[in-house]
């Protein structure tokens, strides 16, 4: 009975409210960016939009490891990817100004795509390697004063919850720019909104920030070692259910 009531709520109350909120915060974003810049405009629009979506979904977020964040340090953030809800959890509760690396198809999403472009997020065309490299080169200039960049190194959502192999793009960027990597584990979001499903389930999600990882050297072995350390940190907490601080 409760599941049936939540299903009705999600379609007839939650969906219309979030559609209206998306349009409202989107318009506010367009108005604020020219005057406040992407960082402050994002805090005033994208962050409350994300938190509102979580609250209306009945999602509670537990936070661990925020002591690893240095407000003045820029990072290359790497996180696992389980659900569309990962975006709201990260944007709403990772207390860090960052730019997403996202597939270029999202640029076409009404309101959200144009706002992401305005806020300086990075669109990658996976079918065009040269264009993808050019987009990342452009992004490097924005990583100053604590502004970071966020990758889902698996490349796409995990359909079964298992951690997929990591691509090396994020780790190469960290090495080339001399920036520390910041591993982040998300759990619980797959149960809230499974991949390829539109049926939500209220519940809890957890965001765990791990100690930064440095690429210690310029060779491929150093890159592989940093990737392995990040993946091990993320995988370890994901396997435990991410209920305890690291």
From TrEMBL:
Keywords: Acyltransferase, Lipid biosynthesis, Lipid metabolism, Membrane, Phospholipid biosynthesis, Phospholipid metabolism, Transferase, Transmembrane, Transmembrane helix. Its EC number is 2.3.1.51. The HXXXXD motif is essential for acyltransferase activity and may constitute the binding site for the phosphate moiety of the glycerol-3-phosphate. NCBIfam families: AGP_acyltrn (TIGR00530). One of its GO terms (molecular function) is 1-acylglycerol-3-phosphate O-acyltransferase activity. The keyword Acyltransferase applies. It catalyses: a 1-acyl-sn-glycero-3-phosphate + an acyl-CoA = a 1,2-diacyl-sn-glycero-3-phosphate + CoA. Pathway: Lipid metabolism; Phospholipid metabolism; CDP-diacylglycerol biosynthesis; CDP-diacylglycerol from sn-glycerol 3-phosphate: step 2/3. Residues 75-189 form the Phospholipid/glycerol acyltransferase domain. CDD domains: LPLAT_AGPAT-like. One of its GO terms (cellular component) is membrane. SMART domains: PlsC. The keyword Acyltransferase applies. PANTHER family: 1-ACYL-SN-GLYCEROL-3-PHOSPHATE ACYLTRANSFERASE, PHOSPHOLIPID_GLYCEROL ACYLTRANSFERASE DOMAIN-CONTAINING PROTEIN. Belongs to the 1-acyl-sn-glycerol-3-phosphate acyltransferase family. GO terms for biological process: phosphatidic acid biosynthetic process. This is 1-acyl-sn-glycerol-3-phosphate acyltransferase. The chain crosses the membrane at residues 6-33.
């Amino acid at each position: 009975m409760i599941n049936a009531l939540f299903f009705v709520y999600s379609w007839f109350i939650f969906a219309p409210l979030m559609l209206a909120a998306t349009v409202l915060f989107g318009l506010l974003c367009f108005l604020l960016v020219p005057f406040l810049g992407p960082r402050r405009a994002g805090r005033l629009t994208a962050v409350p939009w994300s938190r509102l979506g979580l609250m209306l979904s009945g999602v509670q977020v537990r936070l661990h490891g925020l002591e690893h964040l240095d407000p003045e340090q820029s990072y290359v953030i790497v996180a696992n990817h389980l659900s569309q809800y990962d975006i709201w959890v990260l944007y709403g509760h990772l207390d860090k100004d960052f730019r997403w690396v996202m597939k270029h198809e999202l640029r076409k999403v009404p309101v959200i795509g144009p706002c992401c472009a305005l806020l300086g997020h990075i669109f990658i065309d996976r079918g065009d390697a040269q264009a993808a490299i050019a987009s990342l080169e452009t992004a490097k200039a924005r990583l100053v004063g604590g502004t970071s960049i966020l990758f889902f190194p698996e490349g796409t959502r995990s359909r079964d919850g298992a951690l997929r192999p990591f691509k090396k793009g994020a780790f190469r960027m960290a090495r080339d720019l001399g920036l520390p990597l910041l591993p982040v584990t998300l759990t619980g979001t797959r149960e809230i909104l499974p991949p390829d499903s539109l049926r939500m389930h209220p519940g809890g999600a957890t965001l765990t920030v791990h100690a930064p990882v440095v690429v210690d050297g310029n060779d491929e072995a150093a890159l592989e070692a940093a990737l392995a350390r990040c993946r091990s940190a993320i995988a370890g907490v994901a396997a435990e259910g991410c209920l305890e601080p690291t």
